[in-house]
Specification:
This protein has a domain of 361 residues: Alkaline Phosphatase, subunit A. The protein has 14 helices and 19 strands. A ten-stranded mixed β-sheet has the order 7-6-5-4-8-1-9-13-2-14, with helices on both faces. The protein has a four-stranded antiparallel β-sheet with strand order 16-17-18-19, with helices on one face. It has a three-stranded mixed β-sheet with strand order 12-3-15. It is globular. The N terminus is likely disordered. The protein binds calcium ion (CA). Calcium ion binds next to loops.
């Protein structure tokens, strides 16, 4: 019995059946890798009304730093309101946890091994297609405001946008000098003060100009915050200074490697990306975390201002608003200070969506969704078919279904993650990870080190590496086979490489055992020779 037959027998409403059928077709179309085309062809879905969409992205916002999730430091009333008025996609991930690769996946709908933006140092390869190009081709109005960050070389308008307001690379919280400028549609304009409210004002201006109700619009508002150097807006600065903070249990310093941790992980603790030498400063992770949450307040205000503007324009209920972070961030988890790795706190992101006319308030979506799904989702909401070359799947229809139907839908059962080593930050190796609903397997490629297997249901903080236990050998093998099978099916069996560019951060603090490398995992150590040769 097909899903559609199943749905028909229960005499579901016509709208629900249409949604289910759409998901079936989308899922079936994902069977093989289709090359990226050389031209943009926007194909409209018959009988659908294009919807306006606002996509708000923040930088390095970790999945749990929202007050409705009970976070001890974050204050996010507007994110909380989005969750209440719409859906919280509680299992949202990025396929590579790093600014440029994740942004490239959002804009292309492709895994990193296909778009090949593997670091933050350079522009996208020639021939890259961004999904707003399809929206523009369909006659919709598109705007990009904020951080682009694929390459530091220039801030010129990129294809797919009618309105452009952006800066080179990471951008700046405050203009570094009077000569500093931002690119507004090819014109140089000064940065007027602290960045987050400035980007918000530009977003509101863009929305105000969308007065033609027959021309749908797409706004991509991409915040610079809350990337380091964590710099709050003056009204929020030091507001969390006296708040109590506890380090996560996984930050405990281990004196040996009896727990079979990867050597690279133990070494990374004393590095630019480790809690003992964070960003090569002597500062505490606690102070960094508080400033990060203070800077997040302005991003939250920005969401509130955008939602308020949609209300003013009378289009609040029918406009789809999506909020997400480009990657997670660790403040002491596993002894680390950054993202890049496949651990949950790094690869999970916050994601919220609202569209009150079709999405029930307070919905919680359990399905694993990802950055590669944004392009198909926005395209579906705007009445366009997903181009066949994209890896992601639309979750727009998923969010509209009642919980009971949502649970029976075909959806991805395993989530694939990839990170590629770069010389700038040599402490994080190339690795591939597969996350199922119970087990997560991660392999570190090209290192003499231990892989990891976690039961993420029983051990969500990934503290007990099961990979060397004989009773998990079959599960490890199954996960490994599935990982390489998926990589082969999706076109990921070649490792993308770049020549080195930019500074290398490879220093360690001597007085924190900096001259010593970590112990080998206990499972690698034997006391007697293993073989005798005659
Ligand atoms: Ca980022």
């Amino acid at each position: 019995m097909t899903l559609f037959e199943n749905a028909s027998r229960r005499t579901l409403p016509a709208h629900t059946i249409a949604v289910l059928l759409t998901i079936c077709l989308v899922t079936l179309a994902d069977a093989q890798v289709v090359p990226v085309p050389s031209t943009v062809t926007a194909v409209r879905k018959e009988g659908t009304k294009p919807r306006n969409v606002v996509f708000i992205l923040s930088d390095d916002h970790r999945y749990d730093a929202m007050s409705f999730m009970g976070h001890p430091l974050a204050k996010t009333p507007h994110m909380d309101a989005m969750a209440k008025n719409g859906a919280h996609l509680k299992n949202a991930f990025v396929t590579t946890s790093l600014c440029s690769p994740s942004r490239a996946s959002i804009l292309t709908g492709l895994y990193t091994f296909r778009h090949r933006v593997i670091d933050n140092q350079r522009a996208v390869p020639e021939g890259t297609l961004f999904f707003p190009q399809y929206l523009q081709k369909a006659g919709y109005k598109t705007g990009f405001i904020g951080k682009w960050h694929m390459g530091h070389a220039n801030d010129n308008p990129r294809p797919g946008f009618d309105y452009w307001f952006s800066f080179k690379g990471q951008g700046k919280y405050y203009p570094p000098g009077p000569q500093y400028t931002i690119n507004e549609n090819g014109r140089r304009v000064p940065q007027d003060g602290y960045i987050t409210p400035l980007l918000t004002r530009k977003a509101i201006e863009f929305l105000e100009q969308q007065t033609d109700r027959d021309q749908p619009f797409f706004l991509y508002l991409s915040h610079k915050a809350v990337h380091d150097p964590f710099t709050p807006e003056p009204q929020y600065k030091d507001s969390l200074q006296d708040q109590l903070f506890e380090f996560p249990t996984s930050s405990e310093l281990l004196k040996n490697n009896l727990k079979n941790r990867p050597r690279w992980l133990l070494d990374q603790r004393n590095s630019w990306h480790g809690m003992d030498f964070a960003l090569h400063t002597g500062q505490s992770v606690e102070g960094f975390y508080k400033r990060y949450c203070e800077a997040l307040r302005s991003v939250d205000d920005s969401i509130g201002a955008v939602v308020e503007q949609l209300k003013k324009m009378g289009i609040h209920d029918e406009t789809l608003v999506i909020y997400m972070g480009d990657n997670g961030f660790m403040f002491g988890e596993h002894g680390l200070f950054d993202k890049r790795v496949a651990y949950e706190t790094s690869s999970r992101v916050p994601m919220l969506m609202q569209c009150p006319s079709i999405i029930e308030g307070g919905s919680v979506i359990e399905q694993v969704v990802a950055n590669i799904d944004i392009a198909p989702t926005v395209m579906q909401a705007m009445g366009l078919k997903k181009p066949p070359h994209m890896d992601g799947q639309s979750f727009f229809a998923l969010a509209q279904l009642p919980l009971a139907q949502r649970k029976t839908l075909p959806w991805r059962d395993y989530f694939l993650y990839a990170y590629y080593w770069e010389q700038n930050y040599p402490q994080t190796p190339t690795h591939f990870s597969l996350r199922g609903d119970q087990y997560k397997y991660t392999t570190y490629y090209g290192l003499w080190d231990t892989d990891e297997l976690f039961d993420i249901r029983a051990d969500p903080m990934e503290q007990n590496n099961l990979i060397h236990l004989p009773k998990f050998a079959k599960i490890k093998q199954k996960m490994q086979d599935r990982l390489y099978g998926m990589m082969a099916d999706l076109g990921g069996m070649e490792i993308p490489m770049n020549p080195p560019r930019g500074r290398q951060q490879n220093k360690r603090l001597r007085d924190r055992d900096g001259v010593k490398a970590a112990d080998f995992p206990e499972a690698f150590i034997v006391d007697e020779p293993l073989r005798a040769i005659e």
